[in-house]
Task: structure prediction
Amino acid sequence: MPYTSEKPPLTDTADLRARIPGWGVDLDPKDRPSVPQERFDPSATGAHWDFPERQPEKWPRERSIEHKFLTPVFGTSCPPKGLSGAMRQLAYRRYSEGRAAHWLILIAADRVDAAESHLRSLATLHPDNPITETGVMTEFHRHGIDSRIGKHRADLLHQTMDPIIVADPWLLAGGVVFLAVRSLIRSGRSKTQP
Amino acid sequence: MRAMVYRGPYKIRVEEKDIPALEHPNDAIVQVRLAAICGSDLHLYHGMMPDTRVGMTFGHEFIGVVHEVGPSVQSLKPGDRVMVPFNIYCGSCYFCVRGLYSNCHNVNPNATAVGGIYGYSHTCGGYDGGQAEYVRVPFADVGPSLIPEWMDDEDAVLLTDALATGYFGAQLGDIAEGDVVAVFGAGPVGLFAAKSAWFMGAARVIVIDHLDYRLEKARSFAHAETYNFTEYDDIVVHMKKITDYLGSDVAIDAAGAEADGNLMQHISSAKLKLQGGSPIALNWAIDSVRKGGTVSVMGAYGPMFSAVKFGDAMNKGLTLRMNQCPVKRQWPRLFEHIRNGYLKPSEIVTHRFPLDDINEAYHTFSAKLDNCIKPLIVPNGY
Result:
């Protein structure tokens, strides 16, 4: 106990060695591949260049202002577009990673992106379907109730909030459509009145 | 090709996409044979990671067969069966030559604080991931390795992240013979960290979670002593009691950004996105480890600030160690451990879903249905 100098008695290591496969095989730190964490060894990686050849930049690639230049290799998934794209470009162009504004704008852009994409999908032959895309029907054949009832789970309370998060963009889109339609009807009425 | 596509928080679907093209002379295109969903994919799925764009394909745990290689690739050829570490790295920058593969400076234009990761938002470089039939693999001479003949696919796919990360987490704990090691979180990384702690000479391994089925797995797979924190008024006090009020020598946070245990912390981070993650497991680790002990952080957190108890960490003289795992450094030693029969990674796999049912896989894993611990994704055609 900590109130005296003694460490609690150790378990018999012979017993551990007999009971647990591999007990102590990495006891010596020299056998641990990440000890020390930094180990200078340029020949270990397989790289056959001092600086990698540059990947073509097919559109102005957003980058952190903490970088000196665009990295030689980068991902090309989902170029920025629409309002969310403009917000993302602003976050990268204006704020460093050290600023909360950088991340808050990016998170806000993610929500705008989701709303834009849901609306855009409604004009396609493959509109978003929140039932299939959430996989919620799995609840019926993967023991949704049995997995939760009487299981002392700490996540049950906040799981009830998930449908609200899923429904958010749909509620927002519905609200926008409602306001637009109401506004149109009102303006139509005002024009027909003498 | 068929690929998983993100459509917004909690929503994904499978779409037809173009097979990725070679974009750099050292690229390879890999036909995915098996992929997995990582617990950290759920942070993306739940909309927690900044700059997660609609249309992105997730997946940083995958293996496959080389389909095409760029002109400068020397070590791989079409038809090779390869495992791909989740880190994308150049092998030549300041960090890579020092073994910090996860901290590569040449692959992620979007952020300097994190390297490149497949299918893990633009914050991690904007690369599409491997929950698809094909994936672009940059620096094919650096990252991927041939899968040994004797290794089966399910063991190989777990080596691309979960097992390597758990093993790395135990190493960061600086475990010495006779140490008491506490692991917070009994998901795949926690299970592998607990198992690895024994390799390093732990005398006692304690795993804490709130899901009884995962704690059962921690007992059977990782030989751990387990506690369900919902059964105790204060898990930190309980940890002190069971260690004769000293605390554990090492504590490993294997829960990360969506840790349960404090509703307000969870809501403020996972739901309202006002923190980089819920730090409750990390705070429990800080408070339950002994003074002068080591806390190893393997849980993934977003780049925003989190309410971590640094005052307690400072006053206790703790060593806090953390990093994304440099996966390939772990492989030779882990290959030996698997071959020697010390562990069988695929024992933690509970579910296998066809790629076309990946929406159900995510929901099952996210909602912790059906005793799910580790779901694998099998692309069509395999």
Q: What stands out?
A: Chain B has eleven helices and 17 strands. The domain at 2-161+326-378 of chain B is CATH 3.90.180.10 (Quinone Oxidoreductase; Chain A, domain 1).
